[in-house]
Predict the structure of DUF7674 domain-containing protein.
Amino acid sequence: MVDWRERASALVPELRAVAMTEEWSCHVFFSELSQLAAEAHREQDDDVLRRAYGFAHWCFHQQEQFLENAALISFYEHVFDDWDLREEVAAWLPVDVLPKVRALWEWRWPKEQLDEVDQLLAGLQPPGRDAV
């Protein structure tokens, strides 16, 4: 089994204490990571964004289904929760995640909001898409 805690600590040392707290699941870590990413979007901190989105994308590609699901449910499903950051967020979303997370967005959002996100995501070539 992959040790997500070690990977999280290495990529996002700002959240090492959260990652290494055994009582907390990766869902708790993703909640904290989402907040860190939103702050990094506001500060235009590409380094933090690359590491945060890189960790989520790494989890999405692990063989353990629970890590993929955790990334989808506890990170990608909520990336647009701060609607004011939607344009910045859209630029960082990996194309391979979109088909799976879009189904979650359909369940949560009104059609107008989903249409706007679809337009934002159409044809974007995000910065920092390289996995870390």
The chain has a mean pLDDT of 92.
